Amino acid sequence: MLVHANLTTPALSRRAVVVGGCSAACVAALAACSSYGSGGAPAPAPAPAPAPTGAPGAAPSGAAPSGGATGTALTSTSDVPVGGGTIFADQQVVVTQPTAGEFKAFSAICTHQGCTVSQVADGTIDCPCHGSRFAVADGSVVRGPAASPLPAKNITVEGTSIVLA
User: Would the pTM of this model clear 0.70, i.e. be above it?
Assistant: First the structure.
């Protein structure tokens, strides 16, 4: 006599498959982020390197108002055109010379959506992303879509060096 037993395996529900897959992914992510064999707490971050304190070979020009060293030398006054400016993308600053001998500095980050300005031409600081333009004299908006001016940055002229404070 042959006896048939109902030996069907219950099917997994979609929810069980998703939960199981997500659980496995979470375990894998946690394992990848663990610090097995690291020997304890992570090492402290290294101290930042001191900023340059002026033009190469230049004599110190005195202490900054805070009593510390002077800021970062950006460029020479002769490298910033009158009526124009120069962009320093690494420092996120643009230096302008609206009139001869008058130097201004502004953030090089457009106030519209955070793009870095790309050029200084025809009396404006220009953003390539959406066409905003800012005045070289005061950073005010000349053409939108930006609604806010570029924030001013502190600079000093030390001899022929322009220094970011």
Answer: no
